[in-house]
Amino acid sequence: MDWYPWLKASYQQLIRQYQAGRGHHAVLLHALPGMGDESLIYALSRWLICQRPNGMKSCGQCHACHLMSAGTHPDWHVLSPEKGKQSLGIDPVRDVVEKVYQRARQGGAKVIWLPAAEQLTEAAANALLKTLEEPPEKTFFLLSCREPARLLATLRSRCLYHYLDVPNETQSVLWLNTRHQYDREALRTALRLQSGAPLAAEALLQPDCWKQRMVLCQAVSDVLTSRDWLALLPALHHDDADVRIHWLTVLLLDALKWQQGASEHLVNQDQVALVERLALEPGAHLQYELQQWLACRQRLLSVTGVNRELLLTDRLLNGERTFSSSIQRTDHPFLVN
């Protein structure tokens, strides 16, 4: 599994705690998508399960390390939903709990990894609670999550919370620069669009994805001239419409920053001219549209069976009325439809 330089500090911090005898049996690792937290969990698992750790590293030579490299260690368990399911039910949890109370097959530690702890159903989470409170000796639970608030409070309270912070932008730009031939403005833009997560930024910079963002930016530029906001529909109406709406809302937010003299905080570093054009629109209109697009995105993500094309069409027609109106919504800038 790949290793990334920004994982080193968290890895060392957690390993030192185990070396000092203060390591927690259950770690809740909170990380943004695209931070490579699975690599950190795997490295930590290897150290815990290694028969002859070499300082802060697993030895790589013992039988346990060979089994981990092959992905066949009988005391390393990955708890994830069955194929095609979005939640982790009680039966797989019970199976793993039963195994951790048995003797370790290799005579060492037992490690259970939950790649997405938010997927636990309430019943499955409750089935874990007693074991998390009083686990068998040398048994470790490593939980990855994106939104800790979605976990049961009782489950969170039994874990050591660790946040995997994003690296500073300079470090991330240098790392991305070794992998992509884009200018620094594009690299910074990709990072900021992905909240600083380097692997998510790298995914965005893949030619097909980056091209779609550029198509949307050009469509917004054309609309500012034509005033035909419905012309944005082809650039938005795709399976990843929520991502494209995110790109659009960040442009609107950047325009508001520009109006407030905060241009140094722009996300779209490679689209300054477009942001400046958007900033010519009334601020109240920009605020209203930003709020409406955020609500539209939430509906796309949360309403089952929503008619995406109809939703986007209605939103664009409403936006056209907003920007063509001569009356600024200064009294109620965040009105909803």
Strand count: 5
CATH architecture descriptor of the largest domain: 3-Layer(aba) Sandwich
CATH fold category name of the largest domain: Rossmann fold
CATH class bucket of the largest domain: Alpha Beta
- The number of helices is 15
Secondary-structure element sequence?
Answer: HEHHEHEHEHEHHHHHHHHH
Order of strands, main sheet, comes to 2-3-4-1-5
Number of domains: 2
Short description:
The chain has helices spanning 8-19, 37-49, 63-70, 90-100, 122-133, 153-156, 169-177, 184-193, 198-204, 207-226, 233-236, 241-259, 272-278, 283-302, 308-324, and strands at residues 26-30, 76-78, 110-114, 139-145, 160-163. The protein has 337 residues and is α/β, with parallel strands linked by helices.
Report on this model:
This is DNA polymerase III subunit delta'. With 337 residues, the protein is an alpha/beta fold. It folds into two domains: 6-163, Rossmann fold (3-Layer(aba) Sandwich); 206-325, Zinc Finger, Delta Prime, domain 3 (Up-down Bundle). The protein is built from 15 helices and five strands. Helix 4 runs parallel beside helix 5 (122-133). Mean pLDDT is 93; it is low at 326-337.
